[in-house]
Design a protein that fits this description.
By secondary structure, this protein is of the alpha/beta class. The protein folds into 2 domains: about 150 residues, Rossmann fold (3-Layer(aba) Sandwich), CATH 3.40.50.10860; about 140 residues, 3-Layer(aba) Sandwich (Rossmann fold). It has a 7-stranded mixed sheet, with helices on both faces. A 6-stranded parallel sheet has the order 10-9-8-11-12-13, with helices on both faces. Helix 6 links the parallel strand 8 and strand 9. The two termini are about 15 Å apart. The model has no long low-confidence stretch (mean pLDDT about 95).
Length: about 300
């Protein structure tokens, strides 16, 4: 992986058998996606030498140039793309062929070029589902889920939990407007589900005390050392079998996860979700089963530096 992302006018041309893959965003220098994908491609190439010709990089693309970028990259030999901020929502209006789950989640994070056209998917829900099962042993069908936040990450989490038949989904967000918008959307799509919500002005903490919850932090609170916990009450007041999943993976242990540990609760950060959503994207592009082990190892080595 080169030290700086490519700009759009710098992207290399790939002519078969070489294949280009990339993550698009602005800014994008922080992304470790190339580390994950290239590690998995290296492992794939042991069994199939053709994957030695697949290359994954970062491309810095401003919001207004997404459509231009997709045209250029399709002509330059790129088969697969990941999208991050600010493109995940904009792609809904740019890409014609969208997977149903991407439409429902209101975001696209994976594009696959087939027959000259881009097809859009969202692998975040898959990544979260696999992560919860692996790290916390959670079966969504028997879980009461408390999602913190009402933005794009919370929407993806809620949609996946409801699609999997979660016992109960409750969404807590500090402001009411965004919460109500998400609740209305979910209730319209999942008419037979039990989805509830609360904000800072209409919260009954007693409803959460001494009950076993799967708590999912889908906010950005925890990225900074000075951030407060996104949970509205101490973890110690939750049921003793509650578990906590924080979508943030850097820092390794957020304030929420520290508090969960101090309360004797099992918790996990978002690295596993990052890895599993990336592995799913690579499966879509390569049509091969992808082991998450190589990606996880590459990520751990990166953060250990």
């Amino acid at each position: 992986m080169r030290s700086n992302p490519y700009l759009l006018n710098e992207v290399p041309q790939f002519i078969l058998p070489k294949v280009g893959l990339a993550v698009l965003g602005h800014p994008i220098s922080h992304s470790i996606s190339p580390l994950l994908h290239n590690a998995a491609l290296q492992k794939l190439s042991i069994e199939n030498l053709s994957f030695n010709n697949w290359f994954y990089e970062r491309v810095d693309v401003k919001a207004e140039f997404l459509s231009t970028a997709l045209s250029k990259l399709s002509e330059s030999g790129y088969l697969g793309l990941n999208l991050t901020i600010p493109h995940k929502v904009e792609a809904l209006n740019t890409v014609k062929n969208l997977d149903a789950e991407a439409t429902l989640m209101g975001a696209v994070n994976t594009l696959h070029l087939k027959n000259g056209e881009w097809y859009g998917y969202n692998t975040d829900g898959y990544g979260l589902h696999r992560a919860l099962l692996q790290d916390l042993g959670c079966d969504l069908r028997t879980s009461k889920i408390l999602i913190l936040g009402a933005g794009g990450a919370a929407r993806a989490a809620a949609v996946k939990c409801l699609k999997e038949g979660a016992l109960k989904v409750h969404i807590h967000n500090r402001s009411e407007d965004r919460l109500d918008e998400l609740l209305n959307l979910l209730r319209e799509e999942f008419t037979n589900s039990t989805v509830t919500g609360s904000s800072s002005v209409c919260l009954q903490e007693s409803e959460f005390e001494d009950q076993d919850w799967l708590v999912i932090n889908a906010t950005s609170l925890g990225l900074k050392d000075t951030d407060s916990s996104p949970l509205f009450m101490p973890c110690s007041r939750l049921g003793k079998k509650s578990v906590v999943y924080d979508m943030i993976y850097n820092p390794f242990q957020t304030k929420l996860l520290m508090e969960a540990e101090q309360a004797g609760l099992v918790g996990s950060n978002g690295l596993s979700m990052l890895v599993f959503q990336a592995a799913k994207a690579l499966e879509i592009w390569t049509e091969h089963e992808i082991s998450a082990d190589a990606m996880t190892q590459a990520a751990k080595e990166h953060f250990a530096r």
